[in-house]
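>> received
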Amino acid sequence: MEPLKKAITTVGGQRELARICGVSQVAVSKWLNGVSKIGEDKAILLEHALNGLVTCEELRPDVNWSVIRGRS
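>> returned
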């Protein structure tokens, strides 16, 4: 399952994911439909909120997370 869809299913829907991230349901819908990308800060927040069930690397594979995490 796609990581964002997995997160949405886990928390119980787009509206709840939006609440957790502090964004609108429309923003979550845009992430889901590829209109915009989930921000790095929101990816980190979701990884923590879901206890690693979905990781930053899965949500935003285009980001060099090793630099952000302090790993080489």
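>> The radius of gyration is 12 Å.
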